[in-house]
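Example for tutorial group B:
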């Protein structure tokens, strides 16, 4: 039954980040500003700072299945199982044909294609050595499909290509499908295997947008006047979304309620963002949530560490959140790098525990704040304890001018 006013809550989170594999450990590392960005030596490209995940890859799936599948699928399967466990949920509680899986991606298939080209190069580019697994590995729905196979879910699954706004877009899709009555429960999130692709590193370098620093842990430095680009990271975060009514019926843990969201387009440039449209996106999300800017306690910024990108977002935030003395801001990428399609959902996951500890995790690596990036209440270099946190606004923006904002509210029984 369609119910466009139905209240949708987050009851489980599974994640794999460059510095943690559980939301509890992730939160602790963020509060300490503990980064695990390292220098990698990538085939064809060379050395660059990057964020790599280390998680128990065979905890929920056999090694042979991981080998047949993809790195993105492996990340997704682990996080989906972890989300269900975290939600204290047995999948038998729901009809598996009524569970939807919606996974956000920035890109998919480049890693597998590059690997296969390298493989046949060892055999004189003889395509007889090209794997027959290539097509199912590279279709866009692959990570979502691998999750359904692992969990026996027979409801709808698909991936959402929304550049670096894809994680937020997947949450929005999950909420909409629940409210439309298409599914009874949703697994929604984002996945990135970008660190396996030399093409991504080479493209960012060609654009002058790839970060560098003597210490890789200091390479991602949004808002700093010496910032010089993006640190590419892999990662994933998947959420269990349920109606409030069903979550309460099974006495589920509740991280928060999704109360507002918006997406729009810059219609301006392939790469350069536009602060004016980002401001409109945030304002639309606030309107849908029935909130004023002053009602937001934390803004989780998208800022990637690119010179113009950070400035445009700061312009947008200042435009919407002028005169909001109790609205605090932070940036998670400074600690874990940019996880592309998983960025928004990982960053939100890192902030959700603030509903319990009333603490804003810091933006690290800000040694000299760029005056054009000045934001009142930007939390820098150490965490900040505040009186109360009950709302989070999560920004994610992407190439070809796609913008997304999701607003989460603390749920109080």
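The residue assignment follows.
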């Amino acid at each position: 039954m369609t119910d466009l006013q139905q209240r949708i809550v987050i009851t489980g989170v599974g994640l794999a980040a460059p510095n943690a594999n559980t939301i509890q450990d992730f939160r602790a590392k963020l509060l300490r500003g503990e980064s695990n960005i390292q220098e990698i030596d990538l085939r064809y490209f060379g050395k660059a700072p990057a964020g790599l995940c280390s998680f128990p890859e065979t905890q929920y799936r056999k090694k042979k299945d991981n080998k047949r599948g993809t790195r993105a699928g492996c990340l997704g399967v682990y996080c989906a199982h972890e989300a269900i466990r975290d939600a204290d949920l047995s999948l038998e509680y729901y009809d598996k044909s009524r569970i939807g899986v919606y996974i956000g991606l920035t890109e998919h298939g480049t890693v597998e294609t590059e690997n296969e080209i390298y493989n046949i190069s060892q055999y004189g580019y003889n395509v007889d050595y090209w794997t027959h697994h290539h097509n199912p590995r590279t279709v866009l729905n692959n990570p979502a499909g691998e999750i359904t196979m692992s969990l026996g879910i027979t409801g709808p699954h698909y991936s959402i290509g929304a550049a670096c706004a894809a994680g937020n877009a997947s949450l929005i899709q999950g909420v909409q499908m629940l409210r439309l009555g298409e599914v009874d429960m949703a697994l929604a999130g984002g996945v990135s295997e970008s660190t396996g692709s030399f093409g991504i590193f080479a493209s960012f370098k060609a654009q002058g947008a790839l970060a560098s620093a003597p210490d890789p842990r200091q390479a991602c430095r949004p808002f700093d006047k010496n910032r010089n680009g993006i640190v590419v990271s892999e990662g994933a975060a998947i959420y269990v979304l349920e109606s409030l009514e069903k979550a309460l019926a099974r006495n589920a843990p509740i991280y928060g309620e999704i109360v507002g969201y918006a997406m729009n387009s810059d219609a301006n440039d392939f790469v350069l963002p536009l602060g004016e449209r980002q401001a409109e996106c945030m304002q639309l999300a606030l309107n849908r949530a029935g909130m004023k800017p002053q009602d937001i306690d934390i803004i989780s910024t998208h800022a990637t560490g690119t010179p113009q990108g950070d400035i445009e977002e700061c312009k947008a935030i200042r435009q919407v959140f002028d005169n909001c003395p109790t609205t605090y801001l932070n940036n998670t990428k400074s600690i874990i790098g940019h996880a592309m399609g998983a960025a928004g959902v990982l960053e939100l996951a890192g902030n959700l525990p603030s509903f319990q500890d009333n603490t804003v995790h810091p933006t690290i690596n800000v040694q000299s704040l760029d005056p054009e990036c000045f934001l009142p209440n930007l939390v820098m270099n150490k965490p900040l304890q505040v009186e109360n946190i009950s709302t989070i606004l999560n920004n994610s923006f992407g190439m070809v001018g796609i913008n997304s904002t999701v607003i989460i509210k603390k749920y109080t029984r």
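The CA atoms of residues 221 and 365 lie 5 Å apart. Compare this with the pattern of hydrophobic and polar residues in the output above.
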